[in-house]
Amino acid sequence: MTEASEPILSAGTGSMSKTGRLTTLLYRHEALRGYVLMSPTLIIMMIGIAIPFLILIVMSFWTRVGTELIMTPTITNYARAFSEPIFAELFWRTFSMSGMATVATVVLCYPMAYFVAFHVHRNKLMWLVLVTLPFWISYLLRIFVWRVILGWEGMINSGLIAVGLIEAPLEFLLYSRSAVVITLTHSWAAFAILPLYVSLEKIDRSLLEAATDLGDGPAARFFRITLPLSMPGVIAATFLIFIPTMGEFITPTLVGGPDSTMLGNLLQAQFGALNNPPMGATLSILLMLWIAAIGVAFLYLTRLARDRSS
């Protein structure tokens, strides 16, 4: 063997040793293997999230005077967002309506997921398909259907008048906050049923049998075992509903009235009709921070309650 080939062999041996160490590291750490497998998707998601987020942050420090876009950094938009009462009112209104829709969705979907998980023993996939079948219809079409149902001459008012319970149509059904909450609850129900079902399906049935042997009734079993063990699904469903509904603007536009305008409507107007992207970016950043703060507080309170119960 020549002297010239020795550096090549040493370099090859070094690369093989590095590969061997990397292989050993991946073999010992299951989480690391998972991150490596997800790395292409994570990189694409981070690029797709980070770049628009950075653009929003930079744009939020710009201002618009008339038709001119001023790119000199300033906190004028943030000062305006905190000083003008209309923005605080929209934030709290959006929070309350999204919160009511989230609670209603989880409460209504939990029994459905519970029934499929515990009382359906054959063809569970068919049941899940049937449960989510109405949500295969276009989102906009479902909103328009609710306009027909809640309208002055819709199904509810016509039925109540026909049986003599009311003499005139109920005006609060359509173009109101209740109409927005009802429509949001129905529109996002599928996103709550599936995580709730998965969480309930994973519960060890032997725990319920042991509780029964110890004298617990159905209610005690549910509140002591089923509900605590299904909390991961409840939390997942809560976030899956609450976060997107905080940015809703289509539903309030179609079925809501003047008192049901949400922050998403203002964001859409800032980027659209008002042609004020800097203010829209500022409100978008504040909305994301608001949602993040609520999420952290919710997770903290949930963990605190779980630690106390254990």
Characteristic key phrases:
310 residues, MetI-like fold, globular, 76% helix, mainly alpha, 15 helices, two-stranded antiparallel ribbon
**Number of separate structural domains:** 2
- Multimerization status: single chain
What is the string of SSEs from the N terminus onward? HHEEHHHHHHHHHHHHH
* Radius of gyration using CA atoms only: 27 Å
CATH homology superfamily name of the largest domain: MetI-like
Walk me through this protein's architecture.
- The chain is mainly α and 310 residues long.
- The chain is 76% helix and 2% strand.
- It has 15 helices and 2 strands.
- The chain has helices at residues 5-28, 30-60, 76-83, 85-119, 124-132, 139-150, 155-162, 177-187, 190-201, 205-213, 218-229, 231-246, 250-255, 263-271, 277-309; strands at residues 63-65, 68-70.
- It has a two-stranded antiparallel ribbon.
- The longest helix is centred in the first third of the chain and has 35 residues, at 85-119.
- The termini are far apart.
